[in-house]
Amino acid sequence: MQETLIAAAERRASRDARHDRSFRWMLAGAGLFVLLALGGAALSMLWGGREAFATFGLDFITSSNWDAIGQQFGAWVPIYGTLVTAAIAMLIAIPVSFGIALFLTEVAPTWMRTPVGTAIELLAGIPSIIYGMWGLFVFVPMLAEHVYPWVDANLGQWPIVGSLFAGPPLGIGTLTAGLVLAIMVVPFISSVMRDVFLTVPTRLKESAYALGSTRWEVVWDVVLPYTRSAVIGGIFLGLGRALGETMAVTFVLGNAHELSTSLLMPGNSIAATIANEFAEADTDLYRSSLIALGFLLFVVTFIVLAVAKLMLRQLAKREGS
Amino acid sequence: MSSDLIFLKRRIINAVALLLSACAAVLGLAFLAWILWTTLSKGIAAFSPTLFTQMTPPPGEAGGLANALFGSLMMCLLATAIGTPIGIAAGTFVAEYADRHWVGTTIRFVNDILLSAPSIVLGLFVYTLVVRPMGGFSGFAGALALAFIVLPVVVRTTDDMLKLVPSQMREAALSLGIPQWKVTLQILYRAAAPGIVTGVLLALARISGETAPLLFTALNNQYWSSDMSEPIASAPVVIFQYAMSPFEDWHALAWAGAFIITVFVLALSLFARLVLLRKRVAHD
Hints:
The complex is a heterodimer of chains A (321) and B (284). Chain A is mainly alpha-helical. Chain A is 78% helix and 1% strand.
């Protein structure tokens, strides 16, 4: 009687162990799948773009001759456009986001902080195609009519930087794309900044206040040094978005493959080139060139996001210790 | 006297900085309100019930977005159905089995990169992985591309939510001799459910407006199609095509579509937050 009971218990225990093992392997398989997804994405695009890399070599990056009919593909124009639009976006978005985060954590009355913060988080979730449509139908005509003629007439006359701002007021162009991108990434960066500002221990801030610091001095000399790495992480997160953003810039960039110094002229970006031309790519070399562009974009954003992640982790580590 | 001057200078700097910060907040919110207002006003002007019953028209004819909305619905649901179970499983692995192990740290790191990776890149990935070998664009490929966007969101929220479950709960259950898989399925998931549901809803909100990855996977279709192995229309791609066209009536349809997507995304995000909020209240 007792022996059968023990045998039953043992059978049960070994069955449980078996189930536990298979459950564990199933979960590990899913975890492995996540790793494979990223690796697979990189490798498949490298594979898809091999023809372009093999044909053009380094010229693929340095040449600005993108000629679909002559089958010559040099991607310097979209690469340049991606970098410039992202730079304009960050130039505007960083101070504005910092201001919003400062406002939400130190300046605004307490009752205002949660609703405004939530509103900004919700706006971060609006699809980028909406930003693109607004840019094309509302922002572009306004800029072309009221802002760019003034920019051309005034900033365009300046020495050295003048050539950046001279040009016909078309409305669409590199500068517009940078502005729309800035509006898009502000909610991302400011909500990350707000979250990291909130992690600063209250006693640190109160000590500074007790010594007679003004609010600005507390933010600049206590909050910002404490959260520096995470703030940079948040900025890189926004940069990653700005570099890879497709729909918002495709609408307002103008899809031009000529390199021009003026920011008012139409330009291109890696993502916009792929989105605009993939459907028309009729030869293997053309398609391969577009996939190779995607690979370049992936590598650049991977590096930017990895830096962002490492920076953000530093603060988390200190929080944990 | 000079200390008074320094004090005055510090106060002026403080006032200017705080004023600038308030200006930044007003500026940022004004632009975002402007965008939202444009979408709502132009969308409502073009809105009509026939949007949901008629097909996407050729230029110059009346029509709706029925096939595009249906295609979007099918692909989003399928993407969520594919991404959610794998995401929950991977998130559980990271939180419960590989936490603080280098495998778990690596998966977390890679997942966070996938979370912010440009969606157009995921579209190209699925193109080379599925569309090219299969020899054609299809709704399945589109859903798969979207599933790669759902996956990291679900992994992240599952991981975060399971970490919030107190370890006494695990220890109490395990000490009763319950096998770990049962503890996970019947106790941990029950405690973390509202958070995981929020993650899934936010992922759904995110993919319902995604355009870029669908351009080279699901392509587009002018007609009603429920065959997922064929090219299928989707609301964002139709909006993109119509907005970029020179036709006024197509622009109106694009705004109507933008309005529907925006309202859907905002409502879903708000609802997702409420789910999480209710959980917090219940626990306190």
